[in-house]
Amino acid sequence: MSMRGRFLGVFVVALAVAALSATAALAMPSLGHLSWDIFASSLSFAGYLLGAMLCAIVLERRRLRVLMTLAIIGYSIACLMTWVLVWYPFQSTGAWVAQEYLAKTTISLTLVVSVAMVIGLLRLLEPSGSLVRLTRVATESVYGAFALLSMMILWEVFDTWWMFPGDFEMRFWSGLLILSVAGLLGTPALRAAEIARRRETAESGLPLQIQVRLTCPRCGLEQAIATGGGACAGCGLSIKVEVSEPQCPACGYSMARLDVETCPECGADFHRKG
């Protein structure tokens, strides 16, 4: 079983445990906080496992191996820290301070590894055209800025007179969040549209069948045979005809019927053979 399959199996089990514990907490109030603690632990485990599974998908594609490995480790550490927050009895005044610090650290670590996960997922969209590439880089930058600003708000960096006012700070944070979501949804959509357009271009580059005039190597009869193959009209010899379409080596754009030395799609140099 692949790494992704193992993560998915454990993810389903964690969600099932969370659902059962929440049901038990509602059905049997006498259990107290135990069922809710189990529910919080299982749900947080499932959430962190989902992020780790997405990183594993990138890792299986052999992309950003070091970054994805560190992200999976980061998700594991954040999950353990969350369990400490759920199960450790923070009761004294000093313990509450430690609880607040641990909670902020856990959220910050989660934000950092989520940035790595987003970068990995968007990098799976390669190879891509200029518009998709630009959108991907912009999305990575905006989401990184959103995570950084979130951590600054979390750690109360703005509680000084020389930083942004509270209202502007939250409006800017909300704008980054909206742009991040739009980029995460829009980049795959642009990539899908690009693939569809390239497929249409490839289909329109050369006709499905082309009549090629050739001479039969057996009987010497000159004739026209369509691509895909046929038989000699004179002696019946089977003849297979294949025509290769020139494509850009960088992005696969059809260069048929184009007398240029530069790909109009990605700008890469193109040199025709022969």
Topology:
Layout: H1 3-27, H2 34-60, H3 65-87, H4 93-123, H5 130-154, H6 166-205, E1 211-215, E2 222-226, E3 230-231, E4 238-239
Antiparallel strand pairs: 1-2, 3-4
Helix pairs in contact: 1-2, 2-3, 2-4, 3-4, 4-5, 5-6
Describe what you observe in this structure.
The chain has 274 residues and is mainly alpha-helical. The chain folds into 3 domains: 1-124, no CATH class; 125-205; 207-239, no CATH class. 62% of the residues lie in helices and 5% in strands. It is built from 6 helices and 4 strands. It has helices spanning 3-27, 34-60, 65-87, 93-123, 130-154, 166-205; strands spanning 211-215, 222-226, 230-231, 238-239. The strands form 2 sheets. Strands 1-2 form a two-stranded antiparallel ribbon. Strands 3-4 form a two-stranded antiparallel ribbon. β3 (230-231) and β4 (238-239) form a beta hairpin. It starts with a helix and ends in a 35-residue tail after the last strand. The mean pLDDT is 80.
